[in-house]
Amino acid sequence: GAEKYSPRAKAVIALGRYYLGLPFCRIEQYQALVGVPVADATQWELAERVADSAWPVFESLWDLAAQGEVIFQDDTHVRILALLAENRRADAAGAPLERRGMFTTGLVARVGGRVICLYRSGRAHAGDNLSALLARREAGRDPPIVMSDALAANQRDDDDTLIRCHCLAHGRRQFTDLEEVFPAEAHHVVTVLNQVFEHEAETRRQAMPAAERLGHRQACGGPLLEALHDWLEHRFQDRAVEPNSSLGKAFTHVLNHWQTLTQFLRVEGAPLDSNTVERALKLIIRQRKNSLFYASPHGAHVASILTSLIATCVQASVNVLEYLVALQVHRSAVCRQPAAWLPWNYQDNLAPA
Fold first, then answer.
1. Which of 43, 199, 202, 209 shows the greatest Cβ crowding within 10 Å of its Cβ?
2. pLDDT per position as a tens digit, 17-70
3. Nearest by Cα to 105 from 82, 128, 75
4. Residues whose CB is less than 8 angstroms from the CB of residue 158 and which lie 6 or more positions away in sequence, other chains included
5. d(C-alpha 311, C-alpha 58), whole Å
6. 3-state secondary structure at position 107
7. Residue 151 backbone dihedrals phi, psi, to 5 degrees
8. pLDDT (tens digit, 9 = 90+) per residue, 231-242?
9. CA distance 334 to 57
10. Residue-wise pLDDT tens digits, 273-291
């Protein structure tokens, strides 16, 4: 029989769940309220159909993102009911699993002026997902610049094949959290780092090209950070800071990661902080706060496909509703040549009306 739901209706339902983060049961109640009842199970099937039209593009975006000059990575927690049940079964059998945790990794890649946002949920953490991404990188490319916070879950065994940067904003936060307890020391560090961020904001205001921005960073931020490094080391050497105190740990964190925290002083195009991916993960966190969980790894995968496309459209200022409609209408063409159906080039391939 004729299809009851139009591609536009399916796309609207997908956006309600994966952009607004509304659970299907809430959308069901809302639809009933406005006199157009759609059962939550039906909505899930419709969203799954949108993902089915979109997954070739999702795969194509992974290939493209793997060639990125700069890649941001981070994790947030996720609950997948089937995996939680797996944990419980393993506990009951007395055979604890090697991996119990569940994460949604966000990867944001800058590729030749484009920004691609990718998500993946499951037992793998950001380091694993970065490795999976870089396995698709063409041989002979320069090593990518990779920005993350300094958590072990973000590292890979072969981290030396990339230019690792650590987030200076996370480094600063270690001290802002201590301003009440150690006002003098914490305030000094925060003040210096604020100046560095202010100089960086100036390069953005002037829209400096990468090479000029690097020179500005070296001239303005370089001396500030060099003096800060000396000050941190001397406070330790003069035993003015107890190494095991919260302040000592913040000192140690910054000194141990000094090279990666200050990569932007040496590497053209290196970012200062991981805010780009933190913002990208807000879309996933919004889903978690409203919808709490995914039932299965498959449900989480559907969410990853659609959220990745939505977030990438947002970055490209593309009308995401029209885009999701086009992917469904031209599904066979999308399957044949997904790279021709990316958010920024799909309109070239629409059949003339």
1. 43
2. 999 999 999 999 999 999 999 999 999 999 999 999 999 999 999 999 999 999
3. 75
4. 131
5. 12
6. strand
7. -65, 145
8. 999 998 898 889
9. 7
10. 999 999 999 999 999 999 9
